[in-house]
């Protein structure tokens, strides 16, 4: 529901409250399919709006603080930097957020999944764009959808107030699963249509559908942003009042989208880690199954018996005159009355030597059969282990669980002949790690000695160091963030509070500072430090590390 029209509608209203009177700081792209728009609010705070394209699971979220673009990034729409934001509004006709700028120009944030883009409109003409510049510049910008007589909310409001009009529009529904009959509802994507059908009890009766539609429509006007998780651990987001599994209510749309997006980044990171491992497991299983199909013990036993029989027949036919160097016809001594048998010979060997050759081949075939039987047993054992690992892998739902799974099963992986399983190397194997975003990682000490290594051997002077104030706990180091990354610092502080003796408290003070202001003393025990300068933030301990 993160891309739904109503989610973006309320997001635009909250952005208007934050950004109106502020100005555009910079616009850049640091990650593939990701656009970061940095603003300074009227209150002087830094706020980043991040757009994500080509990932249906993500759309738009915000980050507090300033994250300056790095060297390998694209500086975009630089002509509007330092322009004042006059207001933020939602397009009445489609999933586009309109950012009004001083001078009368409009920055359009088009939030379609496959073709998300940001472009500048001046007097109805597109003058610049982040992507597809050559195709868009100079073309007119048509905001209104020619298929809509009214804007989306007005159209839905008319339907919610007129049962007869709703019934006329709905046509003849084919059944409770036929959502096509409801496609006349603007702004309702497939997720919303499924929710509508479920609210109607799976009944295609127009009265039931109308009542369910009214109920959902008024919930959309007064949303309840919440995050949740599926039983498999996949993050969920909704603005309807029906509770999600493991629901957590958010105070605002911006908070809900930020929490959901952070959790979804972790989920996608897990899926990426799982994908490579699952592919390797499948390839290894296919290889074993192919080898097992080739093994045929019955054929090998039959061949060994035939070789031995031919050897005996040749020994019983030494008295016969050899008329051909390549073969000889002998009577079937083991089955009298049956036709004679033609046996292939090696021309340069005598009959007795040919018989010995057949006995040798019989012995070799039986030995091969025995070795293959042992090989088959080993393959079946490896297959059972791989199938067990594959089943266990399917239940993992977090990057932490994937790493623990790999570390716990390295011996099994080696025993099945799989190539070495790669995990994040270096510090992540020594410290607990939590990926807060694609570029920001939190490292957590495991014990006093490990805390010492994390702080004084691994952390760099400008890394952010965190610790629960006044409580025993883990040292935490935040890499890839600056002091302006307020959202990441708060999340890291919540996790630091969780890894402290105060983890069961309602609120925990967590201090954070640059690592260069943390030092140790010979008089202090291992793991204890002196902090020369600090800031303190009050947080609720995180429920988990995700």
UniProtKB/TrEMBL annotation:
An example GO CC term for this entry is: RQC complex
Superkingdom of the source? Bacteria
Task: Give every NFACT RNA-binding domain span.
Answer: 436-531
Q: Which Pfam families does this entry report, sorted A to Z?
A: NFACT-R_1, NFACT_N
Q: Where does the signal sequence lie? A: none
Query: What does the record give under GO molecular function?
Result: ribosomal large subunit binding; tRNA binding
One GO biological process term? rescue of stalled ribosome
The molecule here is called NFACT RNA-binding domain-containing protein
